[in-house]
Amino acid sequence: MITKIEQIPITSNSYPFASAERYCNLSGKGYEETEYYMYGTANVYQSADSHGNVEIAAADAPYVNRFIVRAPKDPAACSGNAIIEIINPTSFMEIDRMWILGHKEFLRNGDIYIGITSKPNTIRKMVEFDAERYGRLSWENPTPEKPLPYDEEAIKGKKLLPDIDFSYETGLFWDMLTDLAWLIRSQEKHNPLLQYSPDYLYLTGWSQSACYLFRYINSFAYRPEVARGKAVFDGYLAGGGVHSLITPVNQYEALKEYNFRLSRVEKVSQPYIEVQTESENGRFDGCRNIRPDSDSPDFLYRLYEVTGASHDTMYSLVDYYQEDPDLIRINHLPKYMGKHEEGNNYPLEILFAAAFRNLFHWVRTGAAPNHCKRIKVDSNGENCKDAFGNTIGGLRTCLLNYPTGRYSNTSNIEPGMSFLDPSSDKDGLFGYQEGFSSAMLKELYGDLENYRKLVTRDTQEQVSKGFICKEDAEELIETAVELARKRGL
Questions:
Q1: I need a surface site. Which of 76, 200, 328, 350 has the fewest CB within 10 A?
Q2: Helices 97-109 and 348-365: angle between axes, nearest 10 degrees
Q3: Does the domain spanning 2-396 belong to CATH 3.30.1560?
Q4: Residue 31 · residue 75 · CB < 8 Å
Q5: For residue 288, what are the contacts with CB-CB under 8 A and spacing of at least 6?
Q6: Which helix (H) or strand (E) holds 181?
C-alpha cells in the first residue's frame, strides 16, 4: 500500500540520477522530468509451487522507493499511453535501457514514461551521486532475525548474485510495482499523473529487468488481489531477456532451483512483444525456451530476434551517457571494454521504436503485428553464419541484407573484465563490428548511388511490414550509406 507520494525538487545543483533532461533536452521537446519518493508498505512473498504461485512470507514491510516521470508539459499533448520501466539494476547503477531505446518514439508520440527503482543494490551509487537527494531510500529486510538459507561462500561466482545483502530485501518490489500501477490508473489526489489520466498502461524491462517482467506475469499479474477484476497492465514489452535466469521472489530464494517454465511467459492475456538480440537468442538458452508467435486469447505473443545487435551497443551503453561528468565522478561511466576498433553499434533503437508502436497499436485496435523469422542456430545454440560472417535469419534491416561489414555479438577482452565470467577473455554481452574492404564493396555494389537504391528499397519494404517506423527510415538509410562511404565504396 502506498501511503505517500512526495515530489523531489529539481534544481541546478540537485537533479535526478542519469537525468534525461541533461541527455535528451526534454524541455526543448515539450517534455518535463519529475522525480518522486514513494512511501508505503509491501508484502514479501515466497514461492509455493513449480508454477510460480506465491504466498505471503512477511506482511506490510515499510519502504521508501523512488520513481521518475517524463511526460509532456501540456497534458493535452499526451497520447494516452503510459509506460512503466523496471529500471535495470545489474551493473549496480540505474540503467533505464528501455527509455534509451524507446524515447525517440515516446517523445514524438506524446507518451508518458515512468521508471521505477527495482532493486536496492543501486541505492549505494545513487547516494554516492547525491546523498541528500537519495539518502532516505530504504528497502529494509523485515525479517532480520531469519538467517539466509545458504552460506555466503555459496553465492561466490554465481551470475548476478553479488548483490545479496542481508540488510535489505529485494522481494519488496512486487507490491511496489503493482501499487504504483494502480495509483497511476486511479483518480486519487496523490496520483502524480492525475492531470493526464492515461488510457493505457504498459510494463517494460531490459535484460535482468525483463526477467523481473517474466516473474511478475507468471506469479503476480493474474492474482485476484493484483488484477482487481481488470488487468493492471494493458500490454508488455520485454527486451534482451536472459532465459537462463529466473528471478527469485525474494533474496532468501536466490539459489532456489525453479521450474524452467518460470524463465519464460507461459500465459498472457494482454499483447506481449519480446525483442531479443543475438546475445540472448541462443547462448543464454533463448532457443531452448522459445515460444511460437500466438494470437490465442490466453497467449498474445510476438517474438522479434534482432540480427546484428548485441545485448549492449555503443549507443545504448556508451554514447547515450555523453561522458557524463557525474558518472565519471562516481566511477561508474559505462565503457566498451573490447579490444576491437569498433564496438557493435547496430541501430537497435530503430527496431525498438517500431516494436513499441506495434504494441500500442495491438492494444488499441486488437490488430496483431506481423511475424518475423527466427535466427537460425546450431545444435549448441550458437547462431549460424552466412558467407559474409553475419548471422542468418531474424529481424533484419538493410545493414544485414546489403552488408558493408560484419556484426558480432561477442568481443575479445582482457581476462577478468567479463561480468559473466571473470576467467574468460570474451564478452558475450557487447560485440563489435568490422567493415569489408573497399575492393569487396565495389565488387558487391558497384558504387554508392546503386547502394543507396538497394538500401532504400529494402528499408521501404521493412516499413511496409511494420518493423521500421516511417519516421526512422531516412535515418537508417543514411546510417547504411555513411558506413558504406566510410568503408570505401
A1: 76
A2: 60
A3: no
A4: no
A5: 243, 381
A6: helix 173-185
DSSP state for residue 478 in the 8-state scheme: H
Q: What angle do CA 226, 231, 236 make, to 5 degrees?
A: 110
For the residues 414-418, what does the mean pLDDT come to?
Answer: 84
Burial of 361 (0-12, 13-18, 19+ CB in 10 A): middle
Query: For residue 166, what is its C-alpha cell?
Result: 542481508
Using a 10 angstrom Cβ sphere, with 0-12 exposed, 13-18 middle and 19 or more buried, the burial of residue 225 is exposed
Distance between CA 61 and CA 82 in Å, rounded?
28
Q: Which three cell numbers stand for residue 463?
A: 516499413
Q: Grid coordinates 565503457 are at which residue?
A: 335
pTM of the model: 0.97
83 pairs with which residues across the strands? 113, 202
CA distance 104 to 281: 25
CA 330 – CA 128 distance, rounded (Å): 7
Tell which residue, 391, 215, 373, 212, has the closest CA to residue 303. 373
Question: Whose grid coordinates read 567493415?
Answer: 435
pLDDT digits (tens, 9 = 90+) for 209-235: 999 999 999 999 999 888 888 899 999
> Distance of alpha carbon 176 from its chain centroid, rounded?
19
* Residues 289/301, Cβ–Cβ less than 8 Å: no
Give the residue-averaged pLDDT of 99-125: 97
Q: Where are the domains of the chain?
A: 2-396
